[in-house]
Structure formats: structure tokens, C-alpha cells
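Progress against Task 2.4 (sequence-to-structure conversion) is shown through the following example record, which the project officer requested during the mid-term review.
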Amino acid sequence: MRFASKVAYTIFLASTVILVGTSSAQAQKPKKAVPAKPTAKPPVQNQTKTQGQLAGGNGQFGVIYGIPSFNFVILGARYTLDPYDAYGGIINDADSKIVVLDIALKNTEKSDSFFSPDGLITLVDQKGEIIQGGTLRLMSKIVDSASFTLRPGQGLGRPELKDAVQLAWKVPLKSRIVKIMVNKGRVGRKEEVFRYYVAGATKEDAGEAGDPKNVIQPLPEIARDPADKAGAVGAPVGKGSFGVWLPSGYFQIRADGFAYSMENPVNDEPVEDGKRYAILTLTAKSDWSKDISMFEVIGGDFPTYEITDGDGERYKPVSYRKAKRKEDPEHAFKKGDEYTLRVVFLMPKDAVAKKLVIGTGSAYKWGPDVSGIK
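C-alpha cells generated for the chain above:
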């Protein structure tokens, strides 16, 4: 970033407050009034690439650090496409994924201490994009609260307690997180922040080479972009398979079968001349604590399900039917509920599906191979 003469910028990520200061020489009145020369407005630059570093040190996963009122440790991290069921739950869409940190805390005060993730952690990706926030959950009480009050000496999230404490963020599917910043200094040090440089990060994209102990576990192999060796960047469409549960929106979905039919699965009318039906049998299982309607499975007016034939023609569903009856599938999902339905397409009689895309609503998409089915 090119700074104007004698001007310095200090950017505090922790509070997102920008202070602009001038040197003492600039603050003095000039002896003679000199007309100011017009200066070109500096181009907007990515803050994380050019900012002056805040005072702070480096952190490692698995190491306990003292921050005001708490001992704090990041136990591990991962990328996922699974729904993050919590008080402030997160659902990925077609262009996003979720980053989850497993953390542990202990109140070090002699009185109750309130813990909230607000403003505590900032993620930075390989392009310098800043991702703030963080949604908190305690696994035993996933929808109860987005904050905790801990008694003196009380701890949460330690592995031996088998009750994880997690923080999660929705991030772009193409993002690779290179730096995790805790926006508090460690107790006993003259720090404003401390930073976890993620394994695989380079000095160019993170400001410092990544620490091999700070590993963010990759996406499942079937959902990775093969061009990204770290497994952080997701493929636009995952490599789905029949008979396998795949995360999609609020659900896990399973493609159970795909077949062509000259019988009408929708009603008792004859099949249109020169046409036939392609029928996907699908099971959806709710991964969400709140009740979810069938609308979230079938996608309303913008269904995710799609067939592409050998000529590149695309087909959207013409109907949805119960697994064995010519009736609309109607179901209110509770967590853990499974429901099987048929997704019905109408195609030319001589057309063959080369590609199938499945996914609930506007969620991440998967592509089970149907090219060998005639």
C-alpha cells in the first residue's frame, strides 16, 4: 500500500477501528502558507496484506493460553459441509462451506465470568479477506445459547469431558484460511492480539509461514477441488455416489436409485408421445433440531435437481412423488427423521442422462454417476 507523505495508518482488526495519525512535524504550522498540491487518491487495498502488524505473538493448536478471565485453547479445526446446528445455526449453500474450531475454556477469575465469541476471533483467507463473527455451541446443549457464564474454576470443552465447545463460520467455498487471529493479548504479555498461522500458509498469503501444528482438517475427498492440495477449496459439484449419505442444507441425502419408465408415475394419464420419465429415488434425513418442511428438500421454484443429456440439454423435475404412491410427498421433518421420495423428470424417449445433480433447496450440489444407466 502506498502511504501519503508523513502519514501512517494503524488498523486494529480487533475492534475494526481505524486511527489516522500525523507526525509531530506535520502538526506544526508552516511559516508560510503554501497551497496544497493535489494528490491522487490512493487505490483501495486489501487491509490484511498491507496493514501495520498489531503487537502480538504466535499461537499453536493444543497449547493453553491465558486471556483476560479465561484459559483458552484451540484443540483442532476442520472444514465441513455438514449443517452446524446451534442457537445461531449455519447452513452452507452452493458456494460456501463451514469452518469449525474445537476449543476449551476455563474461568480463571474468583467470580463468575461471561464468555461470548463476539469480536474474539477473526479468520483471514488466502486472498486477505476478513471473516469475523463466530457462532458458539456446547454439544450437549446445542440450541440453548450463543454464550456461557462459567463459575470460578469451571471449564468446558476439555476432551475428557466429552462435551465439545465449538465455534463456526460460514466461508466461501473457494477460501483457504491462512490465519486465525485472537483479538485479545495473552495475560502477562504486552500484546494486542495473537495469531495462529495455519499449516500450509505461506509468508506471501499470511504474512508468515504456517505452523505445521495448526492443521485445519480438509473437506471430504469427494468434495475437494483437486487443484487445491490442502483440501480446503471445494469443488463446484461434489462426487456423489448412490447409497451414500451426503450433506446438503439441513439434511443428509442419499440417492437410492435412478431408472427410466414408460409408465406415468405422476398420474393416470398416458405418457406424452416421444417421451419417457427418468425417476430418481431419494431419501432425506434431517440434521436440524427445529422442524423442517418438505419445501426445504425439493427447493420450491428453484430446484437443485437437474439432468443433463448427451446433447447438453438440461431437464428440471416435473413432479415429486411419494416413494410408492402417486401423491405429493408431504412431511414435517424432526431431527433424525428419514423420508423417501421420487424426483420425476420428463425427457425425450431417445435421450439418455449423462449427468445428474442433486441437492436440497439452494444447498451444496452432488453428482452421482448415471452415465451407464440406459
